[in-house]
Structure formats: structure tokens, C-alpha cells
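User: I need a structural model of DDB1- and CUL4-associated factor 17 from Scyliorhinus torazame for a docking pre-check later this week. Nothing fancy, just the predicted C-alpha cells so I can convert them on my end. Input:
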Amino acid sequence: MYGTKKSTNTSCLRGKNNCCILSARSIGLYGNEDGSVLRKNLTILRQLVCQKTTTFECVWTRKSNSPVVYEKGRIYFDNYRCCFCSTGPQPTLLYELPKLHKSEKIEDALLCESPVGEMLSKPSDHMPSLIALTANNWLVRMSTKTAEILEKIYLSSQWKFRYLTWDDTQETIVAKTTQNKVTAAARAAGIQHSVLLHLALFQVLPLAFVGMLGIDKNIFGNNVTDATVSHGLLIVTYSMGLVKLYSFQWIVQEFTQKQCILGQKCEWNNTTGIVGAAPFGIPCNIKITDCPPVLFEVSCLKSAFQIGGHPWHYIITPNERKLEGIYHIYSLKDKELAENGIHEMQCCSLDTDWIYFHPDDSGRIMHIGPTQINVLQLSGKSEDVQRWQVLRAFTIYSAREREVESSVRVTAYGRVVKRRFSQLDDDNYETFKMVDYEDELELLTVLAVPPTDTEEKIHLDLYDNQSGILIKSVPLREPWDITHSHQLFFDRDTIIHIELLPPRTFCCHVYKMDQHMTEGGDENNK
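Assistant: Understood. Predicted C-alpha cells for DDB1- and CUL4-associated factor 17:
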């Protein structure tokens, strides 16, 4: 275990310089295996990004009255109606659709990319596409380059679909309805709706209907609050903090009443129509009549439950209000608490700490607080006994340049005055507001905000993902008001900052990498 202070160390970047890499690539020394050239290109890009002479300059700003969405090199405005490509020297307009009626606006969307090395039935399936859910219940697959509509599926005239999520990334999507609320008039009339919401699953590329089911309170219990499907599991949450997991594949096999294929005629509830066409839509063809067997259940605070790690572990806060901010790490196999599996970050701040499994699939755990980031690693305790312990791989600390003022003060007349309230960490230290992972450059990106009463600028710090060593700090030009909502993305050579200004104006700033050569040059560019 060790902690890393804010000292720049670029030794991890020294290996072959860019000239050697380019020369070897040009004569084919890297072989023909999939992705070899891309990996070398990203090695070059990482070295360029992390050079001392590299800066990031704001090249583009645009305001909008509706939320701004960024997704893999594309910036969407006006509910996905207007799209800019951010991969060039500055964002360029890809397309702008005509203004749509309120009923046709896009409610939610997912970016779909075709699999590598797999032949698909239609040429259009090989194009990157945006799968969008419109306000009038159409599921639309459209080209990300031209917004050409490639496929359309009408979902329902009975239920309002509002949300899109991945079940298995780039393989199966879940369309989810709003929750069925009983109005006061219906309640007074004795009308009760036992179905809380509906979930519809679709396979992508090619787009195919898997099935739709309702979450019935008569089956799952009256205190059900929400449900979704993720990684092949039906996850149901309850009002008292209980979370239950069921096998979705088992539910499909046991309770599917009829196979329905998009574009084919179907008879359902004495009505005949085309599956996926208006006004017929898609039928609710999975009818759960008995409660499925529970694979796993756990009680936790606010139903906050995460699974990950190698081997599988889960993170919860015990279901007691006084334990909020204390995280327990358990083995999924036997629900045994890992050794050193209880983690609490001692901090006094308006911002709370948060914890999650590292998105790089290393099995590590990120525990992030206002002034420090702990990267934790699951490790086997012994070969004989299957026990696991949580060790600290490294820690990243924020700058603590100012002394914490004493809570006791002496006046000019010698009278001792004790402060009633102690200061927060936010008042004295630079604090971490956002942490992200740039998977292609293997960098942890940490947004650091200085104390409010200083003239220091906010900065995005780049850390080596494996060691936690600080490689580079990138100052950002815009003033950072902590009372506003912010989003920050770091993608290869681009930084995207989206902020919400009062009363409701979204502002998008785009920074691009810029090279400033010194008189003596840089060793990687000689």
C-alpha cells in the first residue's frame, strides 16, 4: 500500500519514442493481428497528450435550451435533433433535422456499434447507429452520420415507454415504461392497477423482439418500487431496501405465451396486426403467473447494490440510516464479508463519498471522496481457504496547501473565542468533483476544484491507471460554480465540459489538444 502525492512523473511514458513507433509501424513490424496498428496509434497519442509542451485550448462553445448529450465523438443538441462531430480540429455539424412536433421528440437513446469481424444480414447493420425512443412510443434506429431512419418499431398505444438501457452492451436493449400511477379519482372509485411497469427486450443487429413482461404486484409483492433487466438478471427493488435477483432467461423459457416476430402477422387478445407496426405494436407475450425462484437477495440502504470484481463480490451499505456512507464488500458466493471489507472515508464536506467497481474490468474498486481517491484490490488471503481480503492498491490525494485554521481564536485583548462551527474540507482544500476512466489511453481523469476564495483555476489531472502516478495537469478556462450542474468528458485528444447555467441554459465547451514546441524541442519529437 502506498499513497501518491501530486508530483509529476513521466518515467512510465519513456520507452520507444514516437519516431521509432512510426518507423516500425510503416514497415509492418507490428504484425497483422486485430487492433495492433490501433494500439500503437493510441500509444503515440498517449505520449503526445502527456507531454509537458501539450496544452488544451477551448476551441468551441455553444449554448442550448435543452440538455446536451455527448457520446463517443458526437455532441447532441435539442433532444438529438442536431448533431456535431467532435473528432476534428473543432466540432462540425453532421446533421440537423427539421423541428419535430412535441410528440415526436426523442426521450432516450443508446449508441449502437456493429460487432467486429461478424457478417450481418443487412449492409445497414454495419453502420454505427443511434437507437432512439420517441415520445410517441416509436423505437427508431437511425444512422449516426446522416440521421437516416434504418428501422422503426411501434411499441404500444396502451403504455408509455420512456427509458432505454442496455441488458448486455451492444447485444440486448431494454425499453421501460413509466410507472403506472393510480389517480385519486381511480382510487376513490376502487380501481387498482396491479402492474407497476412494463419491460420490453430487443436484440440488436439485427433488431429482433425478445419479449415483453409486466411487473405485477400480485406476483412480486405490493411494496415493489422498481425493476429492470441487466446482464441477464431481472432486478426488482422494494420500498424497505430489499433487492431481489431473478434469472431472466428462466422467466422467458417458462412464461412466454407466444413467440412474436417483428414484421409478421400476429393475433393477440382477439386483435390481429403486424408486430411492431402501428397501432398494433408489440404484445405483452411474457405472462408471469407464479413468482420465479430467487437467485439472490440482499437488504441495503436505498436499494444501492453493485456487483463486480474477480471473483464476484458485491458492495452495499447496511440498511440502517446511521450507517450511511459506510460500505461493506461481501463475496457473492457465500455472502461472507471480505477481510478489511468495511470502508468509511473520514471527511467533513458538503459532498459525500461514493464507491463503484473500476470500469476497466480489472476487478478493482474505486472509493472516491472529496479529498482522496482509494483504489482497492481484491486479493486471495490463502490458497487453502477461499477467503478474500481488500487491499489498498494506491491512493490519490488532493492538494492540501493551506493550513486548517484552528477552532480556537484569541482576540487582540487576549480573550479566547472558540468557533461554534468547524470549517469543512471544501473551505481549505482542493476537492475532487468527478473521476472518469479513459480506456483507450489507460488514464484516470480527475477533476480538481480549488477552494472558492482562491484565484486558482480548476484543472483536470491525468493519472496512470495502473500506478496512480500523476502525469499531467490540464487547467480549464471557465470559472467553476459549484452550485451549477456540470458534466466533463475526456476522450482521446478532446475535453468536453457541459454546464447548466441558471435559469435553464446548457453550455457546451470543447477543448482540443495543442502542441507548443520549446526552443530545444522535445525528446519524443527530435
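Before docking, keep this in mind: The chain is about 10% helix and 45% strand.
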